[in-house]
Amino acid sequence: MLGSLDISQLLGDGDDASGLPSTGYSEEEGFTWVDTLRSVDCDSSDRKALCVEDRTATMVTAQVLTSQDTCVLKLRLSGNGHQLAFGIVDENPSGFSRLAIGDERLQSSIGAMCSPISGTIVYEGRTAGEAPAVKNGDIVEIRTSEGGRVEFLKGSSKFHSIKVGGKCKFRLAVTLFKQGQQVEILRGSGGGGSLPAGAAGALQVVGAGLPAVNGSYTATGTYNGKPMYKKEDGAILYWKNMWKLNDSDNTGGWWYERDDTSATGAWETAAGLGWVDPAPVVKAASGSPAEEDASIISPKSAAAVSTSVPVTAAAAPALPVEARRTNRWGDGLDAAASGHRDFFPKGWTPAKTVREAVEAFRVYSPEEIDFVLKKGCAMALDLKDVDMHMDDDCAAVIYAYTQEKPEPPSLYTKLNDAMRTSGGLAEKRLLLYLDYIHSLSEALSLLPAYSGECYRGLNLRLHPKTYEVGKTITWQQFTSTTKNQFVALNFLGRSGSKLHGSFFVLKVKSGKDIRDISAIPAEEEVLIKENSHWKVTSKAQSLDEKQKLCQKLAHYDLTEMDVYSLQQL
């Protein structure tokens, strides 16, 4: 099938579902994209869309799909060095234009948020699993099949699948973020098809995770007649090299997957690089099945398969956007202070504009500061649309704090180093930064308080006295935390599946959720204001304690990682 980008559907500056075109899907007509922000430009064939400015812009299909529709949308993506996303949204996606796929405010929205280095599955504001990196020119697919199965693929490898409800209606969607990003619709194969008779072995399953939105996956398998392991880890299943591409030794192999998220609990089989659902009987991948393979043909017996192969943890999603080069999540952990620090001299009053306050760090060119101020204006407008009111300068100050410079140092590293260091040049620099500290603190005060669990991490083990249980400590600088354990994981030490360093589980009382004003929203950052006080409530003593505190990381070897719990006072 060939999708289309009908330029007549570029509606203007609205950002909700009011007046959104709605038509049923038919293979003959392909797809028509809707972009209410006029943020893309189309080529003469109406098959390519080019993002023309830096802003979050989600395009959706005018075609509304149901659980009975079968289609393939094949896209060639060019992220221009940054993240982009593709997936599905609700039939009536109110506010969709300025919200990214997977945003918690975008109803029934799930997709793959991918950058050139890594990716993650995002579902209504939560990380739901892993996705591959997407580089310029990579081809991805969204496949739907009768019965409500939606699959995400890169090349020929499936990396995520979900089932939508029987009466659910949804649209396909793409989110672009940066000027120069491009999406091109390619011809899809159409239909889910079925396993051809006598299909020969070209099976491939690579190390990955299969997340379930509400439930769990169970899987078992064999390779070359030898039983392979299964591993369930909460809602994510991990495996490693179950099948090899172009396996031609005529030894049978099997792969079972149980999806308990659906009412039917259908079994699936990977075969011929395709998927059959349901598959009441599993067909041999190549040649005749070996005896060990034949013994697990019945789904009921699958649970008894040997777990003889060592479990190797799948790589956790690294930063799903521009990589941090400095450890924002461990910044200052090794410099816990014992008391409050007064930053402003008696009688001090702010005297600098926001531009001047940012200029003081000498990390931005005049053009870059123009960009920061422009982003502040756009973000303040976006916040207003969801009943959050913040002026342009306040949004720009927060945005500047979250930016990562291509070459260090970034603004936040210079700021926080000065805020927690006494004497010498740090004191002199601190005087230059006071206007920015004041502006950032005031801007954060405009946001509602966030309370909940957040995380920090550092790739070294700290002296036991630094965070002794019962001790009260102060982080004098602004403190970056994340709601996503995988984000903090990026700066722990790692040797294969073994993690080492220090991991902090924080009970936050008065944080500020700045994701909507962040240069890297997928980090799910909660920023803590200066001079935050904490009580060390525990240090995990056993592996079981560590796994309970770090449930998302429980499939790793945590024996060489210290895990602390802190309560904000």
UniProtKB/TrEMBL annotation:
<keyword id="KW-0548">Nucleotidyltransferase</keyword>
<keyword id="KW-0964">Secreted</keyword>
<dbReference type="Pfam" id="PF01129">
    <property type="entry name" value="ART"/>
</dbReference>
<dbReference type="InterPro" id="IPR000768">
    <property type="entry name" value="ART"/>
</dbReference>
<comment type="similarity">
    <text>Belongs to the Arg-specific ADP-ribosyltransferase family.</text>
</comment>
<dbReference type="GO" id="GO:0016779">
    <property type="term" value="F:nucleotidyltransferase activity"/>
</dbReference>
<dbReference type="InterPro" id="IPR050999">
    <property type="entry name" value="ADP-ribosyltransferase_ARG"/>
</dbReference>
<dbReference type="GO" id="GO:0106274">
    <property type="term" value="F:NAD+-protein-arginine ADP-ribosyltransferase activity"/>
</dbReference>
<keyword id="KW-0521">NADP</keyword>
<keyword id="KW-0328">Glycosyltransferase</keyword>
<dbReference type="GO" id="GO:0005576">
    <property type="term" value="C:extracellular region"/>
</dbReference>
<keyword id="KW-0520">NAD</keyword>
<dbReference type="GO" id="GO:0003950">
    <property type="term" value="F:NAD+ poly-ADP-ribosyltransferase activity"/>
</dbReference>
<dbReference type="GO" id="GO:0090729">
    <property type="term" value="F:toxin activity"/>
</dbReference>
<keyword id="KW-0808">Transferase</keyword>
<protein>
    <recommendedName>
        <fullName>NAD(P)(+)--arginine ADP-ribosyltransferase</fullName>
        <ecNumber>2.4.2.31</ecNumber>
    </recommendedName>
</protein>
<keyword id="KW-0843">Virulence</keyword>
<keyword id="KW-0800">Toxin</keyword>
